[in-house]
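Two entries, shown back to back:
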Amino acid sequence: MVVNMITGNGYGSKIEEDEYIRRHHKHEVKENQCSSSLVKHIRAPVHLVWSLIRRFDKPQNYKPFVSRCFVQGDPGIGSLREVNIKSGLPATTSTERLELLNDEEHIFAMRIVGGDHRLKNYSSIATVHPEIIEGQPGTMVIESYVVDVPEGNTKEETCYFVEAFIRCNLNSLCDVSEHLASQDMAVLS
């Protein structure tokens, strides 16, 4: 497994990151698959960041490529969501299943089970961990994935493509979380 550090702020201990990845980001990677873990440090408290990630029914709250999401029934483990992807991308829909939602340990896992894209056997795990950034409550987010390498592509090309989407989502999560945190701070002032 490759670990790509998208720290932006340079906070957090590499030892802590490695331990969280070892403990929570286990993927069975087959020969025709690629996998990686990405890390983002956010200047916002864990409860705020987790409140965005845990919403299986509202990925569009921070994922910029999602235009609409529909979940039939309550968004519990095993539920499916139909996600509409914004135009200009090589897909229009994705069907995803919630695999794990642990509010105590802040673990979210999902699997793509359908859609008009090339991400076959894709699954991801996101975890959220408290940290202190410049004396303020912050959050370390780790997202890992495994996916089949499509025919005609290399593992490197596939990882590059998937990581570009995850990076964009993590950067957007950071922007939204930090904006909400600054609004909270303004209200308290």
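entry 2 starts here
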Amino acid sequence: MARFVVADASEYLAITGWGIEDVKLAKKSLVFVGQQCKKFSLAPVNYSFEVNAMSAEKLPFILPAVYTIGPPVTTPEHNDAERKELKAKLVLYAKLIAPLRKSANHVEELVKGVIEGETRVMAAELTMEEIFKGTKAFKHMVFESVQKELDQFGLRIYNSNVKQLVDVPGHEYFSYLGQKTQQDAASQARVDVAQARMKGSVGEKEREGLTKQNAAKVDAQTKVLSVRQQGEGLKEEAKVKSEVQVFENAREADIAAAKADLAMKKAEWDRRAKVAEVEADKAVAIREAELQMEVEVKNALCQTEKLKADQLSKATVHYDTQVQESNALFYSRQKAAEAALYEETKVAEARKAQADARFFEQRMAEDARLYAKQREAEAVALVGKAKSEYVASMLAALGGNYNAVRDYLMIDGGVYAEMARINAGAVNGMQPKISIWSNGGGSGGDGGAMEQAAGVYKMLPPLLSTVHEQTGMLPPPWMGTLSKDGTAAS
């Protein structure tokens, strides 16, 4: 069986069960066996809170607020994408919030927890003055933060109303602030009345003195102008040459000043944070004392000015005349000093240029010597590389026979010839011992080859003995040995 269910204008149907994957939302629908249908209201609800928060200066306050909150609804102005997004939020509301609407306390506690948490976070980042003067901006910030948290429950804030800030019992910040404003207005009014009276009395005397001062000033300016024209030419010439350097120095000074200003501001902010709490308690009393002191000072000044006005005009005229004459003399001396300083500066620059030229010449000479040494080192490296390649090619050509390569290189380099020359020089001028021996060859040639071999063998012992006596060289063991007395033995 099935039944047809229709929701009111401010309601929706949430259908679950057989044939439905998750939750089906509809204004009217057939509900079959195995399905369950619940109605939930879309009407927004007003929630009133008094949020206890604390500013960045750790000053507590109460923020009364009223929020109108409910599930989102679609309108004809929404496009397909917006309708799909609102439908998803409505499903979240049907799942999470709609079952709790029967017990209003649960929804109110949920909303209150979100609003209080976000309000405290925002208030902790602002000072009391920023919150008080920028209530609209503060409300907007809290509105956006709370809306982000409520999106996960499918809720929408239709309206929010933040009331006037209220003091926490035991902390009378706003009360003292109102009293301070009233006292400031009353004290300022008393100061303005006293100042108007003083201006009336002083103004008359000032007019009389100004007439005499202007006459004396014109005479003094005439004297100053004649001296100024003489020094203007020298000043302009030096000014043009120095402006570039002055500009660069000014830029560096600006950068340094900016860095110093930043450091000073950081230090000032730290100091203000530490003394803000003390200043808040003492500001009203200090301001009252300051305003009272200003009133008394203004009254005293008014009386003083009346007494001074009569005597001031004559003394002022005499003083201005002497000041203008002194300024003219000072200006002429200053221009002379500037001209001398400019001349000394140019002489110093010329000396510096000469020193730079000598330094450049020395540096170029040193660079030339260094380049020559580098080229010489490169040539030696190239020769060594060529020799190594030549030896490697010879070793490869001789089949890797190191002894053959060594003998060839010694012959090619004239080492043996040089050794023979050195040996000849060593025995030059000596009286060598000449030995003559015979192998008995005077008996004819009847013995044949064996006799000749025997003769050669007989000749070896005296030959080896003679070589040993003259050079100190010993024969190889396979050829024979010499006895202790120097005679050869077989």
